[in-house]
Amino acid sequence: MRDNPVLRVVAKIIIPMILLFALYVQFHGDFGPGGGFQAGVIFAAGFILYGLVFGTEALRSAVPPGLLRWVISLGLILYTGVGIATMLMGSDYLAYGALAHDLIHGQHLGIFLVELGVGVTVSAVMVTIFLAFAGRNDP
Amino acid sequence: MLIESINIVLLGMLVVTAIAAIRLHDLFAVTMMFGIYSLLAAVVFVVLDAVDVAFTEAAVGVGISTVLMLATIGLVGRREQRPAHRPLLPLLVVVVTGVALVYGTLDMPFFGDPGAPVHQHVAPYYIGQSPEQTGIPNVVTSILASYRGYDTLGELAVIFTAGVGVLALLGLRRRKRPGKENRVS
Fold first, then answer.
1. What is the pLDDT of residue B38?
2. Quick one: which of A20, A123, B157, B158 could link to A43 by a disulfide (CB 3.0–4.6 Å)?
3. Structural contact between residues B163 and A129, judged by C-beta atoms closer than 8 angstroms
């Protein structure tokens, strides 16, 4: 697929839109359908499209595997970190009300951070699985 | 009436796609059938007003799993192997299990029944209290991330474990294949 100019040009136009849409889904999940899981998968789909069109070697240089390993853990650490933060602030584990001066703001902040953690881990895991599978077939 | 006819058309197309996926022997075509099946399932979820689930199905079922299956086909070849044994015993097991499952659904409350236990337990509390307690308009998000934060943490741990498992089994390092070291790239 690497030699097809139509695919290359269309992919270059579409990939930024996919990533932007993923961010919209991530941060608009409070108001409409969406959230961390969907956003993470869509964000990963942008990278996977890049890997399909330009080859896994190009994807590997865009997203270093060593970095991916850290990002996978980062999301889960963020999620559990929010829980520990609420405990340190004198509330129960993952009771977001303690994060801000009032309950509603705390809930907003907590859900925002937790969904961000979900999105980060999901997207990194999806790209990792794709690289692990598709990368084995490289010539 | 309109919803019923849309449902009948969609579910009929689901059945046709499933049968086509079983009958085909070209694994590439079967993968495409699975993608169409997931897309139809996503549309069914939209008709059921479950847009969040439809979103996930469209992103994961149509997008990622199709790509992963294509990547796997790239490794194992696109022709299905002839089965080494007759499929009568598996068919019997599947039919018996299916009949048992259908028999089990006879005891369940009717679809959309407001008196069903699932709609009587904590759901009314979440729907009634979510706007005041969390201030988030999308009740699905407030249930997933706040009321059921532990469950979502567990789900994330499952995905994390899947990623770590793939890393441990396959790894991301490029394998050096014998005879290819001297290839001019």
1. 95
2. A123
3. yes
The residues in A 13-72 lying below 8 A from B, measured between CB atoms, are: 25, 29-35, 37-38, 41-42, 44-45, 48, 52, 60, 65, 68-69, 72
Task: Give the model's pLDDT for residue B179.
Answer: 47
Across B132-141, average pLDDT: 82
Question: Which pLDDT score is estimated for B102?
Answer: 93
Place of tokens 């294949």: B177
Is the confidence at residue A77, as pLDDT, over 50? yes
- Six token digits for residue A115: 């969904």
**Distance of residue A84 Cα from the nearest chain B Cα, in angstroms:** 13
What is the CATH T-level fold of the domain B1-80, as seen in this structure?
Answer: Four Helix Bundle (Hemerythrin (Met), subunit A) (1.20.120)
Q: Which chain A positions have a beta carbon within 8 Å of B183's beta carbon?
A: 139
Residues of chain A with C-beta less than 8 angstroms from the C-beta of B71: 130, 133-134, 137
The ipTM of this complex is 0.89
CA distance B165 to A129: 10
Q: Which residue has the higher pLDDT, A118 or A90?
A: A118
Q: What is the DSSP letter of A6?
A: H
Confidence of residue A32 (pLDDT cuts 50, 70, 90): confident
